[in-house]
Specification:
The protein has 205 residues and is mainly beta. It is 11% helix and 34% strand. Bound molecules: the ligand Nc1nc2c(c(=O)[nH]1)N[C@H]1C(S)=C(S)[C@@H](COP(=O)(O)O)O[C@H]1N2 and molybdenum atom (MO). Molybdenum atom binds at residues 34, 80-82, 163-164.
């Protein structure tokens, strides 16, 4: 199954550009690489994605199993807290909703999730920002496997939040009872990071 969502009829410009650009951002056509640390390179045969709840393993998929899950395409604008925004980026992967279904979870067990990555990067997310088609574990960008520098083989994509929430090389999604700050959130960045509310730093909005 391939579901395509969010395609726009034509490229936008002018006034529309202003309307779709969050406060303090500028548009770029580049795709900057921003990583705290080295690019991670886990061979596909060693790669797994897991869902955890309170330290217990709920589900795990190897690469082959993960690729067999329902695929969704999303076309979205992305916004980095360093102020670049990139319009109309196209991704393919497995939505968070489909992951939960595949994990046999009829309802999400808690309201908070921590994403854990190869290399130790973490970022915290609220369930409401992951569910209802808002987020996916993406494996493809613009029709090609995501490059290692951009988080391939699989990265989280949470396009409506600042891009630091889109964890590269994601390996584990851990449900938690309480909200805990991830890597950037624990050094002064905002706990949620909504670009439209300009939630850049702790204490903003
Ligand atoms: N694992 C991991 N994921 C990460 C980061 C990181 O350092 N490590 N940086 C975040 C930040 S700050 C941004 S802006 C985006 C950058 O993604 P890109 O390099 O594909 O542009 O990845 C996010 N995900
Ligand atoms: Mo960033």
């Amino acid at each position: 199954m391939l579901v395509t969502r969010g395609f726009k009829g034509k490229r936008r410009g002018g006034t529309d550009t202003a309307l779709r650009l969050p406060p303090g951002q500028y548009v770029t056509n580049d795709f900057p690489v921003l990583t705290a640390g080295p690019t991670q390179r886990t061979p596909l045969e060693k790669w797994t994605l897991s869902i955890q709840h309170g330290g217990q393993l709920v589900a795990t998929w190897n690469w082959e199993q993960f690729e067999a899950l329902p695929q969704t395409e999303l076309q979205r604008d992305i916004h980095c807290v360093t102020k670049w925004s990139k319009f109309d980026t196209r991704w393919r992967g497995v939505t968070f909703d489909d992951l939960l279904r595949a994990a046999g979870l009829s309802a999400p067990p808690t309201a908070f999730v921590m994403a854990h990555c190869d290399g130790g990067y973490t970022t915290n997310l609220r369930l409401a920002d992951l569910a209802d088609g808002r987020a996916m574990v993406a494996t493809h960008f613009e029709g090609l496997p995501i490059l290692p520098a951009h988080g391939g083989p699989a990265r989280l994509l949470v396009p409506h939040l600042y891009f630091w929430k889109s964890a590269k090389w994601v390996r584990r999604l851990a449900f938690r009872e309480e909200e805990k700050a991830g890597f950037w959130e624990s050094v002064g960045y905002h706990i949620r990071g909504d670009p439209w509310l300009e939630q850049r730093y702790e204490g903003d909005a």
